[in-house]
Design a protein that fits this description.
By secondary structure, the chain is α+β, with helices and mostly antiparallel strands.
Length: about 800
């Protein structure tokens, strides 16, 4: 809902005070501990939504632990605890000084837009840089005419225009990179004809620099072609052309390296070959370091391609030497699979085999045992013993059957067969699981509508007889089940769909719907899986904080982990609007699952437990995105933002876009991927402390609460907690004795009944492990293959399965 009045005083005061509290002249660079760099005018404040000029705001006696960076597009808030360095030297010129003014008749009097809700309709910018935005207000729909008044490489200023009737005063900023080149070109060309008819050449040069300083080098080259055609002396721009050519070539190389890092090797190799085959162009010289890097990448790909061909030939040769040996029939099916699945991601599994394929002291069966065991267990665990290799292969087959089997009785039979295998240990089971494909198959058909490559619709059963929960998945190009992919779980709002969430992250389908379509968004380019659950009920417009909502998100993630090659250390939870509210609460409720949480235009909901779970943010990176004019959301959220910013162990970022309201903020997507690329889940903290008050918020890293103490849980359906209810504080700490021969876990969970799950990444299981709980010390049981297997089946995490389970109510 749009409000037509001045913004609330504290937030207005922040805008005014930013100028007063920026002692650093010009722009400044902040370098954060995670490696990010923020550029703009910098200040320090004590509270995000406070008045720094008031006695209780940023007075000299206040502790100013919050850094704010204003780049004229948005304000970014970070904690001083996460600050690494401040560089007061002005960065490269790419800000206001390089802007191009666009002539518009800006409104100078009228109603001021003080709050902006969701847009009902937005028309595209026309060639004059104007558009119409229709919004809902408390008096009905209102249409506002806006015009672009300034374009810089980083941001574009859009203001309300003078119109008949009652004009609106509105200054908002959008990312220049979010405006298509064709639109910008038309606006700038029209502006030149109307405002600068006698200075066309200089104006065109400004347009080229605008795209170049904005990092849009290929588009700058297109504009440069127009400039050279119209220039009186094209030689004046020769060096400029060479500089731009070098920048665009470096950008292309960066794209190829990024695609290779994302596992899109066919794309990268094809582009490298095309790049190397191009005839030299004296007008577009390629920098020597770029040529060298392209050559290195091509040679590496060609070497691996040749190596793969050689290995397949060696496997066939060794298999032929076995003739009618019974071992041949044990190995042959897997050798066939290896030959089919051998690629850039799996070559290293056969390193031991390739290194020893011609060792004179090894027989053909031993050499093939190295290949089979290396494929099943990884090259570091490869063995030349055929008996062990065959056993590992048999165990893998039984494990896969167990993980795929829905019937408990049939699983029990498979487990009996596994226990009869001498090699069925916790260590071997974990090794096999680490190198397995996901146990469940992909659906046979792509999701409708259209034939979109890598797009699936699936469902998971709901609890208590409710309808199944559906979810959509978009895989990146060249998806390989043997490779692990970072993954985004994204939650839709009340007026959006899971499919729209997929499009926000991975881009809309492109191509002929009658044929195979592809997406070209950021998740596609950077090799992320995107999962979008249908987590809410139809027509739901408030977050309820219910078990059903949590189950819809977590159940879909667990099911996806069983079907897709998900890197469980790089799963990021996100959401827009209502979905952002849910992501904030679900993220803090299950902090051990996520590498980071990204609530976009979220606000603290009445049913949310965010206020009760502040402590849970200590090990969970958070990234909030909001709009300056999105009602009073910043004020309502600020108390929690301040807590995150002033806690030394928290890692929080808050981004506020200037003059913007309740939007999806696609402007921020590249910075979000930069942030995600720096974050990994810490699944094995040496200590943690979390609060919980819901019976389904019962798992924290290696601690599971099986039964809560009295008065420590709240039914989120109730409006208020029962008398005497309080949060349960659960803590865990790992300590090793001075000799390093014994590990101790110190657990606090009140009088709850608990289970503790351990693996070698938590404690050293080769030595005694003691669990100290409620004043008693108990020795942990020995690792078991059965424990590993059942944990993988229930949690779906093949990367970090637990080997040991200890329960307080069952004894060791």
């Amino acid at each position: 809902m749009m409000k037509l009045h001045r913004r609330a005083a504290p937030c207005c005061a922040l805008t005014i005070a930013l100028t007063a509290m920026l002692p650093l002249a010009g722009a400044t660079n902040l370098t954060l501990k995670d490696g990010r760099t923020l550029e703009g005018r910098v200040g320090r404040i004590s509270q995000i939504a406070s008045d720094p000029l008031s006695p209780n705001g940023a007075a000299p006696t206040s502790v100013q632990n919050i850094m704010v960076v204003d780049d004229d597009l948005r304000r970014t808030f970070v904690s001083t605890f996460n600050l690494k360095a401040v560089n007061e030297e002005p960065p490269k010129a790419n800000g206001r000084m390089n802007g191009i003014k666009i002539h518009q008749t800006v409104a100078i009097a009228g109603r001021r837009v003080g709050s902006v809700g969701a847009f009902l309709k937005v028309t595209p910018f026309d060639k004059f840089g104007r558009r119409a935005i229709t919004m809902s207000t408390n008096t009905g729909p209102v249409t506002i005419i806006q015009g672009i008044t300034e374009i810089t490489p980083v941001w574009t200023k859009v203001e309300g225009l003078q119109t008949q009737g009652n004009p609106f005063l509105w200054d908002m900023r959008i990312s220049t990179n979010s405006i298509p080149r064709e639109t910008l070109h038309a606006i700038l060309e029209t502006n030149q004809r109307l405002s600068n008819p006698g200075d066309a050449e200089d104006y065109r040069a400004k347009i080229v620099r605008l795209f170049m300083w904005g990092g849009r080098y290929f588009e700058a080259e297109q504009e440069l072609k127009d400039l050279l055609k119209a220039a009186k002396n094209p030689e004046d721009y020769r060096e400029f052309s060479k500089q731009l050519s070098g920048l665009s070539t470096n950008l292309l190389l960066h794209e190829l390296e990024q695609r290779a890092d994302a596992g899109q090797h066919q794309f990268a190799f094809s582009m490298l070959e095309r790049f190397a085959a191009q005839a030299p162009d004296p007008n577009r010289p390629v920098p020597g370091e770029v040529q060298q890097r392209v050559g290195e990448m091509l040679r590496a790909y060609e070497k691996e391609k040749t190596l793969g061909t050689d290995i397949i030939g060696l496997l066939d040769a060794q298999l032929a030497l076995l003739k009618d040996d019974p071992i041949r029939y044990q190995f042959e099916p897997l050798i066939k699979q290896i030959k089919t699945d051998l690629n850039y991601n799996t070559l290293n599994r056969l390193a031991a085999f390739y290194r020893l394929h011609d060792a004179e002291n090894l027989k053909p069966a031993q050499r093939l045992a190295l290949a089979v065991s290396g494929w099943v267990l990884g090259s570091d665990a490869a063995t030349e013993d055929p008996t062990i290799a065959i056993s590992a292969l048999q165990i893998r087959t039984l494990m896969r059957g167990y993980l795929r089997e829905p019937s408990p009785l049939k699983r029990a039979d498979l487990l009996k067969q596994l226990n009869s295998q001498a090699g069925f240990t916790a260590k071997l089971t974990a090794q096999i699981a680490d190198f397995m494909k996901p146990p469940l198959d992909l659906p046979e058909k792509l999701a409708a509508p259209g034939n979109i490559n890598g797009f699936y619709e699936l469902s998971v059963p709901a609890a208590q007889g409710a309808a199944p929960v559906s979810y959509f998945v978009q895989l990146p190009p060249e998806y390989d089940p043997y490779r692990r992919y970072p993954t985004i779980v994204t939650l839709h709002g009340s007026n959006t769909t899971p499919e729209q969430q997929i499009e926000w992250w991975a881009g809309p389908p492109q191509g002929d719907p009658a044929k195979n379509q592809n997406r070209q968004g950021q998740a596609t380019r950077q090799g992320y899986i995107v999962i979008a659950p249908a987590w809410s009920k139809p027509g739901q417009n408030t977050y309820e904080g219910s078990e059903a909502e949590h189950y819809a998100v977590l159940g879909c993630l667990r099911d996806a982990c069983r079907r897709f090659a998900i890197d469980t250390d790089r799963v990021y939870l996100s959401g827009h609007s209502l979905g952002g509210n849910a992501a904030w609460d679900i993220g803090l409720s299950h902090p051990d699952l996520w590498a980071g949480v990204i609530p976009i235009v979220a606000v603290l909901d009445e049913k949310s437990f965010v206020a009760r779970y502040t402590a849970n943010a200590a090990k969970l990176p958070l990234y909030f995105v909001c709009g300056e004019l999105d009602g009073d959301k910043l004020m309502r959220n600020s108390i929690h933002f301040d807590r995150y910013m002033t806690a030394p162990k928290c890692d929080a970022t808050v981004v506020e876009y200037l003059g913007r309201g309740h939007e999806d903020f696609s402007d921020e997507i590249q910075r979000l991927f930069d942030w995600m690329g720096r974050k990994r889940r810490d699944f094995f903290p040496k200590d943690f402390a979390c609060n919980t008050m819901r019976a389904f918020d019962n798992y924290f890293w290696y601690l599971e609460i099986n039964e809560f103490p009295p008065n420590t849980t709240v039914d989120p359906v109730n409006d208020s907690p029962p008398p005497g209810a309080h949060a349960l504080l659960v803590t865990g700490k790992v300590a090793v004795d001075t000799k390093g021969t014994t590990s101790n876990l110190w657990i606090n969970a009140g009088t709850a009944k608990i289970s503790v799950w351990l693996n070698p990444e938590t404690v050293d299981l080769t030595h005694p492990v003691f669990i100290n709980f409620n004043g008693k010390s108990s020795r942990a049981p020995q690792p078991r293959g059965e424990t590993v297997l059942e944990d993988i089946r229930t949690r779906g995490d093949r990367r970090h399965p637990f080997w040991v389970k200890w329960s307080s109510f069952e004894g060791p």
